Every structure is written in structure tokens, then in C-alpha cells.
Amino acid sequence: MAVQLRRNSAAQAINLTPMIDCVFLLLIFFLVASRIADEEPQLDLSLPDISAALPATFQPQELIINVDAGGRYFVDGAFREINEVRARIVTAHTNNPLTQSVIIRADRNASWQAVAEVMGICREAGIEQYSATMESTEGG
After folding, report:
1. What's the angle, vertex CA 125, arms to CA 134 and CA 117, rounded to 5?
2. Neighbours of 23 (CB within 10 A)
3. Sheet strands side by side (includes 73-75)
4. Looking at the whole model, is its pTM more than 0.90?
5. 59 with 101: CB under 8 angstroms?
6. What values do phi and psi take at 6, rounded to 5?
7. Shortest CA distance to 114 belongs to which of 87, 78, 76, 74?
8. Residue in 71, 49, 59 with CA at minimum distance from that of residue 101
9. Which residue in 134, 127, 52, 55 sits closest to 85, CA to CA?
10. What are phi and psi of 127, to 5 degrees?
């Protein structure tokens, strides 16, 4: 004779105790958090002035310095003396001390002395992210 097992209806019910515990914990959390949020703006603080600071979302552009075959420097499409180039590099590093980069583009026939001079200025200014490339101004 086969044994008949009756399933208890209590065993089929979903246990709601863990869900109720979670709901009470969330309720307590939000009550405490709202109480802290109410008190925080009421503190009377004298905050420092940061008007000279740059915005956190500022993305610096790379400074591109071109050196032609004659060893002349061009920044922003205009001829610049080496002192002007130095001033531009120092200003760029001052504005972006951690992320400023410099790209030195030189003509294939340019002397490496002119390129090395700009590299030295970058190193003196504290810019670690600089690179030099050689390009030809001729069509071939």
C-alpha cells in the first residue's frame, strides 16, 4: 500500500519575515539620513574663497608648437620668438599643472637643436607630457 503524504498549506506559503525586516531597516535608514540632512545646512561656517580656482571640468588642450625648416617657431599659426614660446609653455603649465601636454611638430629639414630647445623649456617648466614629430612641408 502506498503512503499518501499531504502537503501542509503552511509549507507552501511564502515567508515574509525577511522582507519585513528589510523594509524596517530601510525605514530606519531614511529616517536617520533625513535627520542628518536637516542639521547639516544649519551649521554656520565661514567657507574659504576659491574664486581663483579653475573649474573641475576644465579639459586642457595640447599646446602645439611648430618648427619650420629654418628653425623658426610658430604657435597658434603665428611666428613667435623663443622667449614668447617659453612664456606660452610656462603659462600653459601654470593653468594646468598636472595634465598639460605639448606637441612639437618639426619640418623634416629643421635642425634638432630647435626641437631640443623647446623640449628643454618643457622640462624646465615641469611639463612631462611632450612629444616631437617630424613632418615634411613639401608635397612628397
Report:
1. 40
2. 11
3. 78-80, 73-75, 63-67, 101-107, 129-135
4. no
5. no
6. -95, 135
7. 74
8. 59
9. 127
10. -85, 120
**66 neighbors 74 (Cβ within 8 angstroms):** yes
Instruction: Report helix, strand or coil for 23.
Output: helix
DSSP string, 73-105: EEETTEEE-HHHHHHHHHHHHHH-TTT-EEEEE
Please give the chain's pLDDT, 140 residues, in tens.
677 766 665 556 778 899 999 999 999 998 888 777 665 555 565 666 666 665 555 566 788 999 988 889 999 888 999 999 999 999 988 888 888 899 999 888 888 898 899 999 999 999 888 888 876 555 44
